[in-house]
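Worked example

This section walks through a single chain of length 385. The input is the sequence exactly as stored; nothing has been trimmed or padded.
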Amino acid sequence: MGGDSINMQNLSLEETIKYVKSGPARYRNDTKVWNDIGNLLTPYGIRTIVSGGTKSRKSLENELFPALTKAGIEYKVNPFIGECSMKNVNKLLGMCKEFRPNYLIGVGGGKSIDTAKFAAELFDIPIITIPTIAATCAASSNQIIVYSDTGEYLKNIYPKTNPELVIVDPTVIANAPAEYLVSGIFDSLAKWYEGSASLPGSKNADIFDDMALAVANMLKSKLFTYSEAAIESVHNKKVTQELINVINLNVYTASTVQALGIKAVRNGIAHAVQNGITTLRGSHYITHGEKVAYGIAVQLMVLNSPIKDISELFEFYDKLQFNPTFSGMKLEFNDKNILSVAQKAVSDVLMKTPPFHVISLDMMVKAIKKLEKYRQSNQKIYREF
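Given that input, the structure is written out below as tokens.
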């Protein structure tokens, strides 16, 4: 591992669906985890690079770095700024070639962690993740989302395995802004909505996809149960069982659904719409999960979902104070922006496979307009739009 030649293996969706991967090799969510850093990390070696943004590293500086020193682990720091782009991946890869770590530690949110995952995959060394927010399942998943340097979605790639080890301190999550936990709740919720729409029309489904959808159903149910209390815990900066539950759902369980359901219970309309929103000016200030939540709402519109399903979703959104509209996300609602989102969404690779391949650009545009009108009409009318 970590040789001079860079790993050029196939990291495509077509390759990863040949294998079943259900989650990280090890996962620990515990306020006392820092006491065991030596036992957790030294089996992987005693040289590492810690890659993460300024805020994420600061949230761990009193715990992680002293623990590394105490364990006799030599480390360097890679300051992460911006996107999970090839520029940032290559920067970290260059540090790996020079320092030759035994493994990488990716800290922070999804883009920071995905950058470290990509560099570790290319350098062929283990990746260990420490999420400082529970905004996505990136810390546990074997999926990496690649963006341009300006934040526009480019593609997904798939490492050969999930991370070796995920370390979570719920105290760190409790002290992070609540908007990130909300983002993770919405991103996790999409596993059910996208999966329940994609599985019935898929030609590739197997028993693992059935497992994935069953877990996704549980995931949705538990998020509906625990989310409000977990968010309140973060507002109060307190670790509660509800918060621990939601962290486990967002970070671990969602990644298990993604891995088990890679063939047929997978990202679809909601994430495709999220990718479309990344093309708009001002969208980069909106969390990934909020864009996905908006995408779920568009999905229900384009599929003409039952009104009871729409009401259930929007009641949950209202409880979490999210308005799934352009105006709610502070974006300009005009024909140019609508078309930009719709074109990017329908061009997504997963939108070109059954059952979503029948959704046209015109259908997507109409769904976006339908959602905006529906919300503005106090949700009293649906079928007319």
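What to look for: Residues 207-235 form the longest helix (29 residues).
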